[in-house]
Amino acid sequence: MLHYRLAVKLQALQDNLRQHQKVLVAFSGGVDSTFLLKVAQDVLAENCFAITCVSVTMARSEVEDARVLGQELGLGERHFLVDSNELQQPGFASNPTDRCALCKTESMDLATPLAARLGNPVILLGTNTDDLGDYRPGIAAASKRGSRAPMVEAEMSKADVRRYSQELGLRTWDKPQLACLSSRFPYGTTITAERLSSVDRFEDGLRALGFSQLRVRFHDTIARVELVPEELPRACQPEIRDAMVALGKSVGFTYVAVDLAGFRSGSLNETPLLQISKRSALSS
């Protein structure tokens, strides 16, 4: 049984969705977009559609999981997997501080014509209120193109989404936080398909070693591994440490470093370059 406050938020989200004749959910297979798609499917049934933009910036395992989740949620042919290539967006590969805006522009360029063919459903993002506290130029870019964020409108936090997801029986309720693989690169570091693949394979290998929430940050020849604090001691066990180093070298890194500060989402937003960019944006 949901707590009254949570029940009110869920009702608000459902009422929000009922205002739309049709919706097209931007679906990555993560905690937020899976929950939004589930609720939208329950409310709108055949008038709910989903789009997954598949590119080299999306982890290979996540592409397959998104496909499977779409089937589990009953979308069938209403789930569209569309090829995307942010690397061909002018300026994206050079990794500027507004990289996420370029990515969302690419996504909206794919979603908008699909929406037109489907009878102009409203394009929905799985953004929650916690997402508003970090540097997220992509959210603003998508909003300018007409997308909506119904979970923000219903004042749902990440914790709310996980609690609702558990109540609804979604297997994604405790899924680790995910992000585009491009977020592993410091701003200004060139992004290539080969580098993205190296990071993706390294993270897959670390999960196979039993680590849960993690990031592999790319620093040229160095892979900086972020793990949740409780898993840091395990990384120091000789056999695990040796396996991590061997894995990193096998995908092209010369050195493997473990960040003692541990995992934190958006850690590369701490860089001085970004702080300068944010101050400039605020003063303009």
Helical content, roughly? 40-55%
CATH topology of the largest domain: Rossmann fold
The count of helical stretches stands at 11
Number of strands: 7
Oligomeric state of the chains in view: single chain
The average pLDDT value, as a whole number, equals: 89
CA(first)-CA(last) distance: 48 Å
Description:
The protein is α/β, with parallel strands linked by helices. The protein folds into two domains: 4-167, Rossmann fold; 181-270, Alpha-Beta Plaits (2-Layer Sandwich), CATH 3.30.70. The protein is 45% helix and 12% strand. The protein contains eleven helices and seven strands. It has helices spanning 4-18, 31-44, 60-72, 99-117, 137-144, 150-153, 158-167, 193-208, 232-235, 238-250, 272-283, and strands spanning 23-26, 48-54, 79-83, 122-124, 214-219, 222-227, 255-258. The strands form two sheets. It has a four-stranded parallel β-sheet, sandwiched between helices. A three-stranded mixed β-sheet has the order 5-6-7, with helices on one face. β1, α2 (31-44) and β2 form a beta-alpha-beta unit. The longest helix has 19 residues, at 99-117. Residues 276-284 have low confidence and may be disordered.
